[in-house]
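Hi everyone, sorry if this is the wrong subforum. Our group has a chain we'd like a structural model of before ordering constructs, and none of us has done structure prediction before. Sequence below.
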Amino acid sequence: TLALARQREGEAAGRLAQAAGELPELELAVKNLSQEITERSQQQAQFKQFSQLAEVAMNNTSRNKTSDDEGAPKALEALEIYGVLSNQRWHERLAQGFLSESQQSTVRETAYELLLTLADYGIRWKSSTKETAQQSLEYLQRAQAFHQPTRAFYWLRAESHKFLKNELEAQQDLQTFQTTTATTALDYYLPGQTLNRKGDWKPAIRAFEEALQIQPDHYMSLFFLATRLAQQGQLQRAADIYRACLAIDKTDFSVLLNRGRIMVEQGNYDEGLSLLNQALDLAERPSSIASALSQRGILYAEMEEHEKAIADFDRALELGKSEDNADLST
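Answer:
Right subforum, don't worry. Here is the predicted structure as tokens:
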């Protein structure tokens, strides 16, 4: 019995010694697992932030110059998350991370679209310069480094070269654009925006419609299609499309204001008032507040609520005379 006890004691001591030897490996495994969980969590948070910034950026760089604070800077901030502009091999690093293949694909496609959006931004405005056009070409070069060029890519590069008076390069890219099949909404939307800015309404409308055939929920194509249709007098169709916009984003000030304006013109005062009140709740800039107040004043005048109309007009005029909105007072 004593011998058996000593044998078992020896076996126990052996197992303890073995466990003690394995303890550092176990601690290392636990540490590695904890680090992986942390990195996975961080990368998911980065992906969420990237997606949110990209959505804001692409929905604002297409609007107007006053959207700078939520347009191009947001696009640059989103791209910086993955080092798209600072690291030529950023996509290789992305592939080594913990995002799913679907998420990695989303990042690459979104980064490509952001670069194209920035390239478009650099050549769109009257204040664009040779420097911003050259920057557009650099954004396109960066996009081409990790993505097959699309129809919109060739259009933007042709426009950039045209701005810089590189006529031969512009013509070559324009020919490639014409023979390249559209695969994304941007392939129609961005050329449509160029036509839109030039005042070529009918071809611009066609381009936005073609973009929506590829991606029915492409928000900016919906927005600008509705806007141009309203200017062409197709109010009911414009109102329906603005309603589709609100189904995607209920907090878009411009959509609320524009649909509200149409409701007033159509005599639907209850919905018009509701939409304009929602727009006022969201308005931050004095110019936006003044626009919504002016439209609501028109509605009150139509409803023969003259005191309310005068109050809205007076407040809008006061905002118009402010130093930040001198253009509204002329």
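For your construct planning: The two ends are 109 Å apart (CA to CA). Confidence is low (pLDDT under 50) at residues 64-68, 325-330.
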